[in-house]
Design brief:
The protein is mostly helical. The protein has one domain. The chain is built from 18 helices and no strands. It is globular and about 60 Å long. The C terminus is likely disordered.
């Protein structure tokens, strides 16, 4: 390997590390870094064929169905009549396609640094949580303002998106010993210290609870439940009970708890239920092929008006369910392709015991039920980068001698 190629490989890995580090901290900075990542990654484009040849059938099938899913969305966007919405959606799906392409082109580098990338992302997430809590404490001490909950805690993202970043970091800390290969970045080896890891886990759980994202709180309980059931300790039921007890005590004193109670009591009037009813009415009229991705919003707004839901109309709400969003855009055809690619990913995670991929998909699916997550750039970046990286990696293949994102 010549010096130029070694430098290019090293630069790509460093920029990949910077990108995943800043994603949870600052959305604007992450958008700047991703441009440099694209530029460096494109130099490896000729490696795509060889990297795909080294994958197994499950991996190839997943990326094939992902490509088909992206292409049918791009085609439906082109055929849509709302050109303004089309331009915004086209940008997101082109990002999805090129992120997947660059990860495939650089998979020979990334899969050898799988654990490093996750460790860097986790470090960035922990730092962002510390900064958010520190800011909330200072505002409380000097101005008597409560910035410990929901959108007041997070500076750069909607609480749901920020919480799902935290869930992935939490999954890494819980599963660190089940991921093959070692962390080679000197200071991040501290994650192997069980006491520091326990403190970090408690901090991240606290942050998810404070963010008040119902979907991610359900995700937290689900993932913690699965994790403890995987353990062989006889005290796991006791540990789960203690965690749930303290969580419930904390929730009761949460200022938004009454809001949640009222939502449950008035479930028929809950905005999401009303949105879903209108969305189902619209979807049922073109159930097989949908309306085209860029025309969905106009169809929903027209249905809100017909249902006399003027508040929803004025706020231009999307379907708040990504599965419904797919049906509205591309019908059952689009949903079938999307589900096949994710079933392949779940089967892959179980076959190769890639449990962090399984945790990632579960947390995303829970969010897909209540948010149109991939319609936002933050959600698209998060999903496309990590699902592509996870599916490009097979832990048993990680003994290759490749450049490492090491600071030793």
């Amino acid at each position: 390997m010549n010096i130029y190629k070694k430098i290019l490989n090293k630069l790509f890995l460093i920029v990949s590390g910077i990108y995943v580090f800043v994603v949870p901290i600052n959305a604007l900075l992450a958008n700047i870094v991703i441009v440099a990542w694209f530029i460096l990654g494109i130099f490896q484009i000729k490696n795509i064929y060889n990297n795909i040849r080294n994958m197994n059938k499950l991996q190839i099938s997943f990326f094939a169905f992902t490509t088909v899913f992206i292409l049918i969305n791009i085609i439906s966007i082109i055929l849509s009549t709302d050109k303004s919405e089309a331009n915004q959606l086209m940008e997101k799906f082109l990002y999805y396609f090129f992120i997947m392409l660059i990860i495939l082109a650089n998979n020979h580098l990334l899969k050898n640094n799988y654990k490093n990338i996750l460790a860097v992302f986790t470090a960035g997430t922990i730092l962002s949580v510390i900064l958010s809590l520190l800011r909330a404490c200072l505002l409380f001490v000097f101005y008597s303002e409560n910035h410990f909950f929901y959108d007041k805690l997070t500076l750069f993202y909607h609480p749901s998106y920020y919480a799902i970043f935290i869930l992935l970091a939490l999954s890494f800390l819980l599963l660190i010993d089940k991921i093959e290969e070692d962390i080679t970045i000197k200071y991040l080896k501290l994650f192997y210290n069980k006491y520091l890891r326990y403190i970090s886990i408690v901090l991240l759980i606290l942050a998810i609870i404070l963010l008040n994202s119902k979907a991610n709180f359900i995700g937290l309980i689900t993932l913690m439940g699965i994790f403890f059931m995987m353990q062989k300790t006889r005290y796991k039921i006791l540990i789960i009970s203690i965690i749930l007890t303290f969580t419930l005590i904390f929730i009761v004193y949460n200022p938004r708890f009454n809001y949640y109670l009222q939502s449950i009591k008035n479930i028929k009037e809950d905005s999401r239920i009303l949105i879903w009813k209108s969305a189902i009415k619209v979807a049922s009229q073109k159930i097989f092929l949908g309306y085209g991705a860029a025309d969905v919003k106009n169809k929903l707004i027209a249905q809100y008006e017909a249902d006399n839901l003027l508040t929803l109309k004025n706020k231009n709400y999307n379907a708040h369910n990504y599965f419904l969003e797919i049906i509205l855009a591309n019908g059952l055809l689009g949903l079938t392709i999307f589900m096949i690619m994710n079933i392949l990913a779940i089967y892959y995670s179980l076959k190769y015991k890639n449990y962090i991929l399984l945790f990632f998909i579960i947390s995303c699916f829970i969010n897909f039920l209540v948010e149109s997550m991939l319609l936002r750039m933050a959600g698209m970046f998060y999903w496309s980068f990590f699902i592509s990286m996870f599916m490009g990696n097979r832990q048993k293949d990680n003994n290759l001698s490749m450049p490492s994102l090491s600071c030793n």
